[in-house]
Amino acid sequence: MTDYKFEPGAAMFGNFINYYQFNPPENRIALLPADLLRLTRLDELEYILCLDIGCNSGVLTEALFDYLINSSQVYSNRKQSFVIIAVDVDQTLIERAKESNYNINIIYLCLDIMNENAKEVLNYYLKKHNKSSFDISFSFSISMWIHLNHGDEGLKMFLKTISEYSDTVILEPQPWKCYRNAVRRLRKCNAGQFLFFDYLLIRQSVEADISDFIQKVCNCEKVFETGETKWGRKITVYKTNTQ
Fold first, then answer.
1. Is 48 a member of any domain?
2. Which of 78, 91, 101, 234 is surrounded by the fewest CB atoms within 10 Å?
């Protein structure tokens, strides 16, 4: 799905080549709470299953795995093990992730979370790991691409899905200025257009609107919010009511 003839800043689905060269994983890891497992009441579990949506080439996924191990060692009273199911829409990026992956507890899949068969795949891995929901779902800078490609209702469906399938949801939504930049880059490169951009009702206050929706409609509780990343984005941790 990645088309390398376009400039790195232009991508229809956020599937940038060499993404982590200009946004290293430590930029996000440094902002996450060191006591995440205790904060989200997962510190007593022996086995934690995670979902990483939009994993790109897997560099951040691997850093998240190490972060979870460190959080467990510092704040948990028991030895915990972790498995991360990491998904992305881009087959080329998933192949790159698989080629460099030496961690048997990280599983990479080419999957579009908005596809009608996505729930079937998620249910398969939940059943395989004897879980009713993912303990933690990560979604870093994915919401904008879903919003631009699937509209307001698609964004709402995504938020409902991850809330339904997760005990803890970690989101990093993009602000509205990022939408304008994404549209401008595509137009500049003649790389296509986002059909929903001109029709979005969720616009200027998109970050606040996402937060309101996931709390009020999806019945989640905000338990942590970081300061802004170097890109002017905040990472928010929500506890869902799936249990």
1. yes
2. 78
The backbone torsions φ and ψ at residue 108, rounded to the nearest 5 degrees and listed phi first, read: -100, 135
pTM: 0.93
Contact 210, 147 (CB under 8 A): no
Name the token pair of 69: 């191990």
Mean pLDDT, to the nearest integer, of 20-27?
88
Position 137 in a domain:
yes
Q: How far is CA 104 from the centre of its chain?
A: 21
C-alpha R_g of the chain: 17
Mean pLDDT over 35-54 rounds to 94
- Has residue 190 been placed in a domain? yes
**Based on the structure, what is the number of domains in the chain?**
1
Output the domain CATH number for residue 225: 3.40.50.150
Q: Which of 140, 137, 139 is nearest to 125 (CA)?
A: 137
Range of the domain at 82: 36-239
SS (H, E, C) 165-230: CEEEEEEECCCHHHHHHHHHHHHHHCCCCCCCHHHCCCCCCHHHHHHHHHHHCCCCEEEEECCCCC
What pLDDT score does 76 carry?
Answer: 63
The rounded distance, in Å, linking the Cα atoms of 175 and 60 is: 21
pLDDT of 196 higher than 70: yes
